UniProtKB/TrEMBL annotation:
Its EC number is 3.4.24.-. One of its GO terms (biological process) is proteolysis. This is Zinc metalloprotease. It comes from Chitinophaga terrae. Its cofactor is Zn(2+). CDD domains: S2P-M50_PDZ_RseP-like. It is found in: Membrane. Keywords: Hydrolase, Membrane, Metal-binding, Metalloprotease, Protease, Transmembrane, Transmembrane helix, Zinc. Pfam families: Peptidase_M50. Residues 187-279 form the PDZ domain.
Length: 443
């Protein structure tokens, strides 16, 4: 990966997290202000020892920290990561968090998570409204599949048509991999030569699939030219948009995968391409690049399905998509704890792993899709009943509302310390795994 690609991924990650953190903290800030609770600080990123810049407006100091691990609002009279024991030792002031009714404190604490959930729903809705949602229906995969080595290891052959997973019909071809992983599929049904066969998914298959981070089958497509790239080998030939490429040096290559595989056998060589143009069959010579490439982009010959939404239709559709993404994330977490196929050290990662999710070139659709998904993750993780997280504060507040007894401030201080130790431990563990994987590449 080039330095430019790394910087683009990092920039997308920082922008995405900045948006999520600022809006999350606004979710705490706004209800605190509505309930006349003093907010002493509002920071994007953490500021131990110093901040990049800061200014004060009214009673609140706004600033940008130098440590990009999140952000925070410091609310007067609240036991948080600042551990301001001096303030807590004083009698409660009317403007402090601890002086407010429990129901107001609860609304302030769930505000951040609420904003993140609503943000995810809103982003998904706007993407659906503007772009719609496109899938490759399984019924459109009329030429069957191309199996890689992992797919062939369980008996899938080129040309097979995947019919069902554990006898559940496949609706969308592009959902096969996630379905296999999340539902820990045991059998795959394929159609071959007019017969339906059931192939067993052996132990270790899903683990290998996760490690490779690539599908085990692809849809077979004829190679129809859509675009000839600038400064490419194809630009110096008579190849045209709409041409179908079907052979290399006389070797029949009916589908895109076969064609590109054959090309790579002839790097820096002159080859003869079989080309179908309308009803005419042509032979065109071209000298390939050192990578064995022509420099062309293929057209999608398979029939895609795009669901379009009006503005008002997109709102419930965005909500539904957000709920489905949350369910998928919970199922992923469950697999880490209960599945023999999913190893924690291979599936957990820190900021570097998150950055890898973003594309190497700036793509706003991918950016907003990932930002919405990260917003769901941030909301879910924050509502977990762990001290130092919003969920920990919510747990203690619910206890107070139900029992009518408020936990002592000394207990809350100890709980805060325990929670911070847990969080920093998880942070070090996740990012340490990223570093370890990076080091392993050199050995």
């Amino acid at each position: 990966m080039s330095t430019e690609e790394i910087l683009i991924k990092a920039a997308q990650l920082i922008l995405s997290l900045s948006i999520l953190v600022v809006l999350h903290e606004l979710g705490h800030f706004i209800p605190a202000k509505l309930f006349k609770t003093r907010v002493e600080k509002f920071y994007l990123f953490f500021d131990p020892w110093f901040s990049i810049f800061k200014f004060k407006k009214g009673e609140t100091e706004y600033g940008l920290g130098w440590l990009p691990l999140g952000g925070y609002v410091k609310i007067s009279g609240m036991i948080d990561e600042s551990m301001d024991k001096e303030q807590m030792a004083q009698p409660a002031k009317p403007y402090e968090f601890r002086a407010k009714p429990a129901w107001q404190r609860l609304i302030i604490m769930i505000g951040g998570v609420t904003v993140n959930i609503l943000l995810a729903f809103f982003i998904y809705a706007m993407l659906l409204w503007h772009y719609g949602e496109t899938h490759l229906p399984n019924a459109s995969v009329i030429y069957g599949v191309e199996a890689d080595s992992l797919g062939r290891s369980i008996g899938i052959r080129d040309g097979d048509k995947l019919v069902s997973l554990d006898n559940r019909p496949i609706v969308y071809f592009d959902a096969i991999v996630s379905d296999v992983i999340l539902n820990e599929v045991k059998t795959i049904q394929v159609e071959r030569d007019g017969q339906t066969l059931s192939l067993a998914v052996p132990d270790g298959f899903i683990r290998n699939l996760i490690k490779r981070k690539a599908p085990f089958v692809g849809a077979r497509r004829p190679f129809i030219i859509d675009t000839i790239l600038p400064n490419s080998a194809a630009l110096k030939t008579d190849l045209k948009k709409g041409d179908t490429l079907f052979s290399v040096n006389g070797q029949l290559t009916r589908f895109m995968g076969e064609f590109t595989t054959e090309l790579r056998k002839h790097k820096n060589e002159q080859v003869d391409l079989g080309v179908l143009r309308g009803k005419d069959t042509l032979h065109i010579s071209v000298t390939l690049s050192k990578e064995g490439m022509l420099g062309i982009a293929g057209k999608e010959p398979l029939e895609l399905y795009t669901q379009h939404y009006s503005f008002f239709e997109s709102l419930p559709a965005g909500f539904h998509k957000g709920v489905e993404k949350l369910k998928d994330y919970v199922r992923q977490l469950r697999l880490i704890f209960v599945s023999k196929e999913v190893k924690t050290t291979e599936s957990v990662g820190g900021f570097a792993s998150i950055a890898q999710l973003f594309p190497a070139s700036w793509d706003w659709v991918s950016f907003w899709n990932l930002t919405a998904f990260l917003s769901i993750i941030l909301a879910f993780m924050n509502i977990l009943p762990i001290p130092a997280l919003d969920g920990g504060h919510v747990l203690f507040l619910l206890y107070e509302i139900v029992t009518g007894r408020k936990p002592s401030e000394k207990f809350l201080e100890y709980a805060q310390v325990v929670g911070m130790v847990i969080l920093f431990g998880l942070l070090l563990f996740a990012n340490g795994l990223d570093i370890w994987r990076w080091v392993q590449k050199f050995f």
